[in-house]
Amino acid sequence: MLIKCFLKSVQTFALCAVLMLFSTAARTQGAVSFLKANTVEATSEKAMPAAGNELAFDFTRNMIFFEARVNGKQGSFILDTGAPTLLLNNRGAAVGNPAPTGVAAGGIVDLSNQRIESFEMGGRNTGKHWAIAMDLRGMEQRMGKTIDGFVGHKILRDGEVRIDFPDRKFQLVESSRKPRHEGRAPVTAVKFEYIDHLPVILLRVGKKKLRFAIDTGAGTNLIDKRLSKIFTPTGSEMNVQGLDGDNKNHQIVTISDLQLAGEAQPETTFVAMDLSHLQSPGERAISGILGSVFLTDYVVGIDYKRRKINLW
C-alpha cells in the first residue's frame, strides 16, 4: 500500500549493457546485463534538469564511468542510454521493497524497488526518486571496477545528453531546434523512434532497412543471429555471461556495407546472438544494438525531447 501512494505507472523496460572484458587471438569474453523488469514512477518524480555541468568520464572497456551521488554519497556510475531508469547496486543487501523478479539473458534475477532521497550529477539533483536495485557484484568482479549503478532514460529524458567521446566528457544540455557544439552545426542528424525506452534508428545494409537501438551501456555492437545473410563470420567467438551467471559462446561477425544517414560506414564488428529478449509485443523488431564502440569517433548528442541524434 505504501508504494501505491507514490505510484503513477508501472512500465516494463529492457536494460542491456554489454561489457567487453578482454580478448585473445580466437575468443573474447564479455557479459550481457540485459534485464527486463517493472519500474515504479511517482506522480511527483522528475527527470534530471535539462542543463547541467560538464562531467569527465573514464572510458573503460567501452563503458562510460563517471562520479555521481546517491543520498549524498559519492559513487561510480555508468551512463547507459539503454537503461530504463536508475539501477543501483545493492551488493546483496536487503534494501527497499521486493519487486517482481527480472528476466536476464539466461534466467531469473532478484530485484527490489528502492526509494532514494536524492540523485546528483553535473550539479543537478533529481530529488526523491524511485530506482531499481540488484546485486551487481559479479559485474564488478568481471570489470575490475566499482559499479554503484547505471544511469538511464528516466534521468536523462527531459533534454539532450551530449557525449564528447574524443575529450572524454559529457553534459546534460537543453533541447534545441538548432543545436551547436563549439559553434558548429551537427555533421549528421538522425531521427529516432522509441521502442519502449530505447532510442532506435534506421540503418541500411544494402537495400535492407534495419532498426538498431543506441545503447551507450553496450561495450560492443550486437546483431540478431537470424540475420545471417547480411554478416560474415570472422571465425572468432565471444563468451558472454549474463547477470544470472549463465554464459555461452557467440560468433563475432562483420558487416561491410552498413549505411547511416546515407553515409557508408567502415566495416563494422558485431556479436551475433539471440535478441528475442529485446522485442516488445506490437512493436517493430529491433535488429541489433549499436554500443559506445560505434560512436567513439564523434561528439554525440541524444536529444530525447526532439527524438534526434546529432553527430559532430
TrEMBL record:
The protein's superkingdom reads Bacteria
- What UniProt keywords apply to this chain's record, in alphabetical order? Signal
Q: Which InterPro entries match?
A: Peptidase_aspartic_dom_sf
Is Signal one of the keywords UniProt gives this record? yes
Q: Which Gene3D superfamilies match?
A: Acid Proteases (2.40.70.10)
Stretch forming the signal peptide: 1-25
- What is the name attached to this protein's record? Aspartyl protease
* Species whose genome carries this gene: Neolewinella aurantiaca
